[in-house]
Design goal:
The chain is α/β, with parallel strands linked by helices and 382 residues long. The protein has 2 domains: 195 residues, Glycogen Phosphorylase B (Rossmann fold), CATH 3.40.50; 164 residues, Rossmann fold, CATH 3.40.50.2000. Helices cover 46% and strands 15% of the residues. The longest helix has 24 residues.
Length: 382
């Protein structure tokens, strides 16, 4: 009988809890036994509380120590050889690279998920990138499926020869659970623009702050809120002093990091959601949460972000790294009558329902896993 075990390899438990619990529940409902392989962090107990088997692995999310990566690869290889799963699901660059090479050694099929190329394409030097691309190509030769969250990443991986087109499958981001983010009417009588996400410069936080200053002079009633996690040890993040200075503005709020369950409440209180990102996104989950909540979005014509906004329909699209263009879009939205804002909100929710419902992603995973199961059964019968 084919194995009913599935492993999930991630670079953090936090991301599993934030975006994969519904997929795991669906797999368990199909009779699969799921084991998560990820480093121990603050979210690991939540996996255990949910009854999900967890095996800790050593993996530094951003480190580039070759010896450490080899140790991590050997560790994953040993675990997969012991568990002998039907398939292993891999997310983020290191599990997609070193985890897939480990699965190849263990003889375990892999389904990869490219949730944005992130720092690999945005700030990796050519000296480092070339060997990484060669390793990715070697790893993806073993992949059963490579799932892409946007067309830009898929096209670039194909052009670089990293993956065969027959193995690729397009999915609508990570999807969003529509029940977790019910649509509520856009507030009237107030105007609040919300930014949420990791407070990286590349997420457009500084552009948001500059646009807020400009709009405050035109629309003194407008409020601006920033929330998200900040890492002072990482130079990629905005200076905390700039965020604190922003928060001292009369209509500005710097809320810092919040729990994932709190995001829906902030979305409900805002009038529009703003993400001026130039980060190499997959499809930003927070944009999906915003449109599911029925909030117009103002975001950039950037990889992943452009997938979510239909310019002038459910929000506005602006160029990257252009605070003046962003301010113009905020001003344009501020001048809309309440009825037009609500029309945008309804279009946003409709797009979430028809394109980005998490159930679409889950069913594509179940179909891909079912094909592997059937192939294994045929191999054993033959």
């Amino acid at each position: 009988m084919a194995s009913n075990r599935i492993t999930i390899v991630y670079n953090s438990s936090v991301h599993v809890v934030k975006s994969r619990l519904k997929l795991i529940a669906a797999l368990q409902a199909q009779g699969y036994h799921v084991t998560v392989l990820s480093p121990v962090d603050e979210a690991t107990p939540k996996l255990q509380e949910a009854g999900i088997a967890h095996i800790p692995i050593s993996m530094n999310q951003y480190g580039m120590n070759p010896l450490a990566e080899l140790r991590s690869m050997r560790q994953i290889t040993d675990i997969l050889r012991t568990i002998k799963p039907l398939v292993s699901l891999h997310y983020t660059i290191k599990p997609n690279l070193f985890g897939t090479l480990a699965a190849k050694r263990a003889g375990v099929p892999v389904i990869n998920n490219i949730a944005g190329a992130g720092r690999l394409f945005s700030d990796t030097s050519a000296f480092i990138a070339k060997p990484i691309f060669l390793l990715l190509k070697r790893a993806f030769q073993h992949s059963t499926r490579v799932l892409f969250q946007n067309d830009d990443d898929k096209r670039e991986f194909l052009e670089l020869g990293l993956v065969e087109e027959a193995k690729t499958l397009r999915i609508p981001g990570s999807g969003v659970d529509l029940q977790d983010f019910p649509q509520t009417p856009v507030p009237t009588g107030r105007l609040e623009f919300l930014f949420a996400g990791r407070l990286l410069r590349a997420k457009g936080v500084e552009e948001f702050i500059k646009a807020a200053k400009e709009i405050s002079r035109i629309h003194p009633e407008a409020q601006f809120r920033i929330l998200g996690e900040h890492d002072p040890s990482d130079a990629s993040y905005v200076d905390i002093s700039d965020l604190e200075a922003f928060g001292r503005g009369p209509n500005n709020h710097f809320s810092g990091a919040v729990q994932p369950t709190e995001v829906a409440g902030f979305l409900e209180r805002c009038t529009a959601f703003v993400l001026p990102s130039y980060y190499r996104e997959g499809v930003p989950r927070v944009l999906l949460e915003a449109i599911a909540s029925g909030r117009p979005i103002i975001t950039t014509d950037n990889v992943g972000c452009r997938e979510v906004v239909d310019d002038g329909v459910n929000g506005f699209r602006v160029p990257v790294r252009d605070p003046s263009a962003l301010a113009q879009a905020l001003d344009r939205f501020a001048r809309l009558p309440a009825e037009a804002r609500q029309d945008m909100a309804d279009a946003a929710r409709a797009k979430a329902e028809h394109v980005f419902d998490e159930s679409i992603v889950i069913h594509r995973y179940l179909d891909a896993i079912s094909m592997i199961w059937e192939q294994n059964a045929r191999d054993m019968a033959g």
